[in-house]
Predict the structure.
Amino acid sequence: MQNRLASGHSFDEGIMKFLLYLGFALANVVMLAGEYTISLTVPQRVKLVELIKSDKEAQARFETLKRVADKALDDKPNPIKTIQTEGKLNSDPVKIKTHESLKDTGKIYALGYAFAVTGEARYADKVREFVLAWATENNPTGDPIDETSLESLFVAYDLTRGSYSSDETKKAEAWMRRVADAEISHAKKNAINNWQSHRLKIVGLVGYALADSKYINYAVEGYKKQMESNLKPDGSSFDFHERDALHYHCYDLEPLLALAMAAQANGTNLYSQTSSGGASLDKSVKFLVPYCTGAKTHPEFVNSKVAFDRKRAESGDEHYKAGHPFDPKNGGHTLELASFFDAGYLPIYAQATGHAEPKYPSWQFVLNAARK
């Protein structure tokens, strides 16, 4: 008996629909982006479909994602003119409104990968509706903390670009360039904290998505400088010491890992590169591991040098209360991303997050396998 998608289509039918769609979309993909991608190459898409068809765990992870996508098919985009979260308390009405709009990013991400697996045009059509709405309404400010969530839109665009008309492509890509240009123009001289890590990710993803060497070079060269100035030879980071918090160590590493993954997909190995002082992204992930296994503990924010951390704690935000122990679960996303480079992080992720140790405890691990 064939496995079936929630929609009732067989996986074989899904593969066939995907390949048929690819026939007319691939020419546009190659023309628009050359060999570059920030999501999946064509062979990786086929591998992902086959993996979901053949493995029950992978299928279960996809079905969870697909339910989000199916629900989003009935939703309307809710873009916001200016994303504003950075430096604001959770009770701030502006931040609350922004978070409501940013719920679009999870929907767009799910829709993009639902299309990648099923080949059903309705998912691509909905991604296009959301992306174009954001491209029309959103005004980039160059604040990387606010705009780091746009990663999902860039990835979903990359997955569905063949469904856009020429004018729609120009509109979407012009907005993406405005985002990257705003980040570059607002970069502070000698910036080395997590802001710069997120900025490099944003610019790099736009660069690889659009095959634009200006943005790619900015991100790759910036990554090398970030290794020299932010990452330490012992694996710790500038943000870990400034904030006295593994929370910010993870927040520093995650955008660098996302950038390194995109670079790897396009032939550049950033993950294993070592600075002149001996620092590397690999070492900085390893620095986190004992705190995720429980071998070490760390009281968070005790000696933070940033006044806003205290302000958030005083507002009642328990995540920033000085002295609370780092929760290993909070290292989970860092380990998910790092598992793209080193599968040995899977059991550590499972331990830290309380999962059993299947092959694919989250969707990210399915993607990691398809990208190998």
